Amino acid sequence: MSGPGRVTLRGVVKRHGAVAALKGVNLDIRPGEFFALLGPSGSGKTTTLRIIAGLETVDEGSVHIDGADVTRLPPGDRDVAMVFQSYALYPHMTVFDNIAFPLRMVGTPKAEIAARVAEAAGRLQIGHLVDRRPGQLSGGQQQRTALARAIVRRPTLFLLDEPLSNLDARLRLDTRVEIKTLHQTLGVTTIYVTHDQEEAMTLADRMAVFVDGEIVQVGTPEEVFDRPNSVKVAAFLGNPPMNLVRGMLAGGRLVLEGHAIPMPGAGGNEPREVTVGIRPGDLRLERGGIPATVYLSEVLGEGTILNLRLGESLVKARIPAKRRMATGAPVEIGFDPACLHLFDRTSGLRIATALEKTGA
Amino acid sequence: MTRGVGRAVGLAVAGLVLLVWSFPVLWGLVTSLKTERDVLAYPPSVVFTPTLDNYRSALVGRQSILPNLWASTMVATATTAVTVLLAVPAAYAFARLRMRARKALGLYTLFTQMVPPVGLVIPYFLILNRLGWLDTYGGLILVYLTASLPFAIWLMVSYMEDLPLEMEEAAFLDRASRLRTLWHVILPQVRGGIAVTVIFVFLNAWNEFLFAVVLSGREVRPVTVAMYNFISVEQTLWGPLAAAAMVAMLPVIVLGVAGQRHIVKGLTVGAVKGGGRR
Question: Across the interface, do B175 and A106 touch by the CB < 8 Å criterion?
């Protein structure tokens, strides 16, 4: 895609006193893309968004939008619109005035303001609420007002900072679909900050995973989920998160809790300490598998999460059946070796194997 | 039943407190309606024929306080206007800008409030005398500003700090300049705070006596000082004094009633949220 809305960050460093909030972030966001910044709280994703918005200064590095260096440009000169986590609506103005505010600030003629506000409000189905004040709206309606205020300007860039986190679970799902639809119709580059991996997975074309002020992986949701490039990413993604157990890799074999699994194409002949990752959904109960004991079973609506004791490790397995099992019950678990993720024990980085699933 | 009794007791206690509190005011009101004979009668007469003579003499008599009411109005209004004009942007700066000297400046502003006014009267007198500003509107307003500005700044800061920062950031992103943000986004939301500031500053300037009596003279004499002149060595004109006091209280009462809602809010600002001050 070659429209406007390309964002480039190079070596961006942000310090708060002695603490580095961002330790050199590089990012290339393509025009028209829906890009998610995903990470736990305090990982630097919101700081990155605020730097792109111009609300935070950088200590080192540069920010470019469509090739122009905007590193030192004030927020108003960047042609970006943002939806804040708190919505940041102006409480003393009506919905109409809130949506009209960005247009009034640039001296748009009255008739055009009325038309564009009506269009934006209509698109977000709040046309009937324009005379109310934010205090008289529900959370979801406030959220739509904030979105309308963002789209009414037709900016080159949308920045969304955890826009769904203040909504209840049901509304969150509905709004998620609407945000995706909005992006598809408007085609404006959208940068979306979230700590909710499900949001990132469902919404984003591509995403960047933040850990401790650094981007640890960039890719499509599938790439990141299926091939996490480090233990950090593996541990963060997935619900419940990926099981991580200690193992030993030697001579094309992986030794896991005393069981040897052929692992062609991985590692050399030197024994190597590894962390083995396997997603709970990839574990299954299987006769002749590795013996384990049930520690706790959590029956969910659509299946069961078994907490198992496997040797010295605790692992979770998600099985499709609803089965409440007694604590201490013996089970045998199996898995497809291709589903295993291997990471170097010291560096935490992914180790390639010949079995690995390649993309989608 | 017990609830009814509790309520009655509560009301009785409140009534008693109110009576004690309002006694001087009521006494003043009664006195202002008495003839001089009734005022001086002992034991005090409760039943008497009310008269408006005192009001006539206070307002249009030889010692009419009308020019003094005008002087007080001028001084209090100008003090209030200048205070709000300067305190609002100053408070915004204190609340929002990341200045190196922010804390020191804030403390400095507060220090000026820590000196007892009596200690300042003589220096102020000497300064104004040297400037030739004794007995002028400018001199008195200037002196009142030294007290009202710090107070107003600190009051307004607490209001502004309670506003979420994100709202301003949203305005910046919507291409509003800092001044337009202040005007369109901040000010409408701190109207209550401005109302409280106006009321407090105006009343303080209106009621001020100590500085006024020392720093004013024949030209500019606020009503508080003029009332004092009803007390002389030979006699005290209690009736006209009380009448003048009643008249001088009117703007206080009007402002108080009009701003009651804001005042109560102002006294408890930050008490609930508390997270505003950083």
Answer: yes
